[in-house]
Amino acid sequence: MKKLIFFILFSSLITSIALARSTGCKEGNCENGYGKWIYTDKTTYEGEWVATKKHGQGTETWPNGYIYKGEFKESQWNGIGILFFPDGSTYEGEWANGFMNGKGTFTWSDGKQKTGIWKNGSFQE
Amino acid sequence: MEVSKNSFKTLSEPVKQFGGLVGIIILIFLTFFVLNNIFGEGDELVAKMKIEEERIAEERKLNKLISSLPSGVLVSFDGTDNFKLSDELYEAVCKATKLIPQRAIMGANFLNFRAHEIYTINGNKIDETFVKWDDEKNKCFAGFVVSGNNVGVDETVKVSGEALSFLSTGIDTRVYFIKNF
User: Fold this and answer.
1) Which of A43, A45, A64, A110 to mutate to test the interface with B (most CBs of B within 10 A)?
2) Class in CATH terms, A2-123
3) Chain B residue closest in CA terms to A95
4) In chain A, where are the structural domains located?
5) How far is B109 from chain A (nearest CA, A)?
6) Interface pTM, i.e. ipTM
7) Residue B47 — very low, low, confident or very high, per pLDDT cuts 50/70/90?
């Protein structure tokens, strides 16, 4: 029984260490400069950093297929950028506070498009 | 009455014992019949048991299928390097899937700002998630419900859309992309 408990605790420790080593800043400078950060859920950010925040040009890739390429401010999607949805749909245009805000074009995976003004992710008719 | 009493007395002992045994058995059957009518659920219980047995059999079949799938992203559409589900597998995976991870919820919230606000205010708390196969449309639908107080107003928002991709972990499957646009 003692051996089993020891084995479980030892395995947990090894797993935690392995997980900790596979996440965090993996390449470059993730404080001030250009670097690649890997999160525990396998989301990655590769791009510019200012004062440990995502700031400038960068690419954020989610494990479920969302990819944002463009401007970041204070770690949020802010400025001009393009979001690729997992099915191939895209939104290209202006972003504010992590949402489609401003001028932009949404293109569905079948090629249908909608261009205009967006506010917090909603198209303004 | 007296005649039948006398004729019973004239019967041999083994016949009397056999008659007694038959009488006890009939009594036991009658007792159970009466008790079953009073307390038992009869046909209803049998029907429930059959439904449960069918559910367990279906669950075993789905679990066997899930364990045979490759680990990683499974999609129902063309144009990616991920494992493409056949129509039959898409339906089976949909029926077997219960979980919706955080990134799928965050992705769906891009097109629903109110849901995003409540989700964030509540510390990423979800009231309810659902994954359902629609027999009429032959499509898998998934979604979630968030509720909470947003700037003094109690709100409940339901977000739903077509579940187009899943993650197979080898143990279970999870909805990976909800197309709500």
Assistant:
1) A64
2) mainly beta
3) B110
4) 2-123
5) 9
6) 0.81
7) confident
